[in-house]
Amino acid sequence: MEETPAVVEDLALGAFRLVKQALDLELDFTAETLPILDHYLSTLRDAAGAPDEKLVSVAGPCAGAYFGEVARRTLPDLAWVLPEEPHDYPAWRLEGTRAPLSFNPIGAALEAIFGEPLADWNAHVELPPAERARVDAALKAVAPVRESDFFRLTVRHEALQEILVALGRPTVH
After folding, report:
1. If we measure between CA atoms, which residue out of 154, 121, 125 comes closest to residue 38?
2. Could you state, in chain order, the average pLDDT of each consecutive group of 10 residues for the chain (173 residues)?
3. Which residues make beta-bridge pairs with 24?
4. What fold does the segment set 6-166 form as a domain?
């Protein structure tokens, strides 16, 4: 497995610290801790459901780096592709090294915070058109997801597993 880029590790450890401080729980870079991160992200919204923009500007990149690193460590053949300017977060990607997919884990974390799709973040898995129908059919075959859970990082990780299986990649790392 390739080494974690330093900027990713720094941000992911930021998520570890934010969750520890807020919830007194520890993340450990396993998929089993994604529900803890999902819960933490839900606390960033006020009573009306609006996220605190100041907290989001810090927690979003940290949570996205953590989520991406969990995906990279627990699913096969994913690699970080980072822009020259490390703070250009919309340009961050995790890409399949042998499976034709890519997505922005920071975008996924921001969508988890806001609970809706965000333009220009490429949070959803991008696939070649030739693979889209097969993957869509595989995702429709699994249990439906409640709308309120759709953007949770835990659900995104499970969807990534299903996508990799549909693309013929085993999901045991």
Report:
1. 154
2. 91 98 97 98 84 91 99 93 96 94 97 94 94 90 85 96 87 59
3. none
4. Four Helix Bundle (Hemerythrin (Met), subunit A) (1.20.120)
